[in-house]
Amino acid sequence: MPLPPKVYQFLVSVFASVGSILYGYDLGVIAEAIASDNFKALFNPSAAESGAVVSVFTGGAFFGAMFSGFAGDYLGRRLTIMLGAIIFLLGGGLQTGAQSLAYLYAGRCIAGLGVGFLVMIIPLYQAELAHPDIRGMVTGLQQFMLGIGSLVASWTAYGTYIHFPATDSKQWRVPLGIQIIPAGILAALILLFPESPRWLIDHGQHDKGLRTLAKLHAHGDINDPWVVAEFNQIQDAITFEHEHEAKSYFELFQNRSSFRRLILVTAIQASVQMTGVSAIQYYSPVIFGQIGIPTNDTLKYQGINSIIALIAQALCIAFIDRVGRRWTMIGGNLGNMVTFIIATALLASYPPGTTTNIGAEWGFIVVTWIYNFCFSCTNGPLSWIVPAEVFDTRTRAKGVSIGVMVSFAFNTMIGQVTPIAMENVGWRFYILFVVCNLTNAIFFWAFQPETKKRPLEEMNYLFTNAPLFVPTMNMKDFQQHDLAHRLEEAERKASVSSHIEDSDRGGNKEVMKG
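Structure tokens predicted for Major facilitator superfamily (MFS) profile domain-containing protein (514 residues):
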């Protein structure tokens, strides 16, 4: 029995998201690696060097995201995914065998380059495959798989930390080496899955694009009304885009509608880093250590934290296409702000080294878990969902590429600054994230329109015609319903055609009787 179309789309997207596991795993594992006794004994890194171990990865990812925009447009979505996985394999091998910090920097930079390709192209690929009704669920898999990677990393690092002695480099080499496995699986199998139908149609492969749409939505039936309606809409949109839209990155800044979307996407990606997530993710041993929690307990609590994040991400996948994007983003930032206010107050009231208040320690742990839950069911997944869906076909790879570059630029900055700030200003560093979460919420309340369940080809209409100040708009006034009208027309034609065929068969029977 063939799989229902939406289940098939979901499963294809799940496999593509294996690439996101690599990013999530690295986010989770590097904090534990640089905190391990053997790593510190072997390399004796300063605070700035520890920051560099983290930041060269995200710096490499910045350039990977930049190049992936070109690769996604010219090579296709699948080949770009495969290229990113192969690059990551090389970088992962270099990290695992590192004999010096310079060696480790090179491996992490190359691995980051591969991750930059992957995290840019995967949600874009997923969005172009998915039905509008499940697009949020499908592109939200990016953050869910990040969570799986982080979960595996946390417990792997905890296990190697407590089971290998400080004299054994397996404490950090084994966790770093495991990330090679999913990269190899992704590189080996991605070409077995369908190419984006929108990319195929955009590159003149109309018949192949139609067959791919039919495979995704109708078990291969190219005459299915939905397939016919969506194929015609994509063709018309791409024809218009070829005549009017961006042929280079520069033109994203010239078209008012494209520039509006670019500002929104870059703001989302920058805002996510300024929620404080990377500071907590990379340097939890340092942060927890500030309040007197030992490293082995920190790694265990981070493992629990990863489980909480995964539950939150699963909830987002289940409900995001019902509750929508806009208020989820606003509420998430406000929730993050509250948790950082509490964390800041705890650190200010119970300074590290001057108190052994167990309640304060547990209060800090719990508020970190609450923050992680809030972030993981709101801002984290939405930072991939919204950028992948707001652009049109001609600008999608370019626009998402710039957005991801901004994300990695801010990620690199936070990765480099956090250990230095922790050492010099302590709890006052958290005030930055309190303020940023508040300003994030205000910005998205003012400027982010709702995009749930809107077909990709109708985003251009929304961002061209809707007012910049979103609270004054009525969303119903900007519903185009173009795909719905095309579907009705396709169903009507199919019904008329079926009726004619039935009449012809009836007439033939009468002739035969005569």
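The chain has three domains: 1-193, 197-244, 255-492.
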